[in-house]
UniProtKB/TrEMBL annotation:
<dbReference type="InterPro" id="IPR035906">
    <property type="entry name" value="MetI-like_sf"/>
</dbReference>
<keyword id="KW-0472">Membrane</keyword>
<keyword id="KW-0812">Transmembrane</keyword>
<keyword id="KW-0813">Transport</keyword>
<keyword id="KW-1133">Transmembrane helix</keyword>
<feature type="transmembrane region" description="Helical">
    <location>
        <begin position="253"/>
        <end position="270"/>
    </location>
</feature>
<feature type="transmembrane region" description="Helical">
    <location>
        <begin position="140"/>
        <end position="163"/>
    </location>
</feature>
<comment type="similarity">
    <text>Belongs to the binding-protein-dependent transport system permease family.</text>
</comment>
<feature type="transmembrane region" description="Helical">
    <location>
        <begin position="226"/>
        <end position="247"/>
    </location>
</feature>
<dbReference type="InterPro" id="IPR005769">
    <property type="entry name" value="PhnE/PtxC"/>
</dbReference>
<feature type="transmembrane region" description="Helical">
    <location>
        <begin position="88"/>
        <end position="114"/>
    </location>
</feature>
<feature type="domain" description="ABC transmembrane type-1">
    <location>
        <begin position="88"/>
        <end position="271"/>
    </location>
</feature>
<protein>
    <submittedName>
        <fullName>Phosphonate ABC transporter, permease protein PhnE</fullName>
    </submittedName>
</protein>
<feature type="transmembrane region" description="Helical">
    <location>
        <begin position="31"/>
        <end position="51"/>
    </location>
</feature>
<dbReference type="Pfam" id="PF00528">
    <property type="entry name" value="BPD_transp_1"/>
</dbReference>
<dbReference type="InterPro" id="IPR000515">
    <property type="entry name" value="MetI-like"/>
</dbReference>
Amino acid sequence: MANSLPNIDDKTLLSLRNQYPGAFGATSKQLIRTLVVVSLVAYTVASLWYFEVWRLASASDRAWRLISAMFNWQDMANWQYAQIYSGIAQTLAMAFLGTILATIAALFIGFLAARNTMPISPIRHLVRRMLDVLRGVDQLVWGLVFVRAVGLGPLAGVLAIFVSDTGTLSKLYSEAIENIDRKQVEGIRATGAGPIKTVRYGYLPQVMPVFISQSLYFFESSTRSATILGLVGAGGVGMIIIERFRANLFDQVTFVVLNVLVCIFVIDWLSKKIREKFIGETRH
């Protein structure tokens, strides 16, 4: 049988390869992509093997017993409700105070870290590196540090939330300041306004909605964080949870967690209403 394929020169073959790269076998990019996928799959399988994931099957009975104990509420009349709700109120106060202090601090630090409000490069970079340290250390670690420094209690939790949220909020505030419309600022400066009035009437009206939205979100997030901080002795409802766990009172642990979830839902709903009122979010 005679060969019916036409003769193709090198130039035509190169042009066809460029037009239809998938029809001429695997290219170098495809090989690299395949190698990356195979490596990820192999790493995932190796990680599952290293952490002995099959132990979940043998622990299923204990897990079901724990779950049944958490939802089998007994002797509810003798639960210390005053202590539970006092811990929840303490947790909310920790989150609020830590977030409001961080918001006030970030309102000033954010302008020092923004390129358009702090033209002195060494100062700006020094502030940014300081913020990297504050937000680079986990909030739980800050809680351990302040428990060691000021002792057990909610003050350590407030300080941990304040330090951690200051680093993150200042970073977010500085980015919002750098992305403003500069024409409004130039218009304020053209009237002969000084630096303070320029910030008041040129910057704040543009960035304040973003500041409020981010602070409200961090208040909600700090409420969850304050619960975890209590586990290391920083006060709040977390200490109640860990005490109930150690006493094998899993039904009371579930009750406390459900109450915390209700508080978070309420905070989220109130935050949404505040954003709709002051920032102008509309319902779709």
